[in-house]
Write a structure and sequence with these properties.
Elements lengths: L1 H20 L3 H18 L7 H4 L2 E10 L3 E13 L11 E12 L2 E9 L5 E11 L8 E10 L2 E10 L7 E6 L7 H25 L1
Antiparallel strand pairs: 1-2, 2-3, 3-4, 4-5, 5-6, 6-7, 7-8
Amino acid sequence: MFKYRILALLLLASNLCVGLAQNTVESIRKRYADAKEYARTHTGSNLDDGGDFGCFYHVEARQWLPGTGGHIENTYLYYDEDYVADSVIYKPHFLVFATKRFNYAAREYYQEFLYDHDGKIAFVYAYDPMISFDGDENDLQYEFRLYFSKGRLIKSIIKSKNYNEKEFKQVYSGTTIPAKYSSSYKELLSASKSIHQLFIDVDKEAY
């Protein structure tokens, strides 16, 4: 009987840990706000002060594209380190937050990606300056906010506006993605994986 009680307690503790690991919209928003503040206050810090310098990689790509001209991508990869034994000088890194800004011709795109410790995507923000979905009369500007728990979508918020409007208006909020936005959703998921792989490759070479 005592063994069964111990097993039950262990299973309960395991379930509690799993429950705590689940993301909620509120916990993601808190982590996202912290990541944004870290990026804002550390990206251009003093090289001589390790505490304020910040932990990130900056990757810039420049190329000339037929039809659209100069194309520049700036990706910032903000990371943290695993707290293993103090005797280990170079502790392993994991990606926390990434931003990507790029252009096609005069249109500028912006994306943000928040990751869980295991590399799964937790949140995506994306601004698309010109896109047209079924039902749109003209090309509109769109904002996407996608929340995930253990890789599963738990909430999506989509907003749009015309170029002559100042504020975005919410056009969808829910726990799924409507079919008309599925292509953009898949592209953003693919981008989140590509950026995580970019971090792995850069970290391997630089660290």
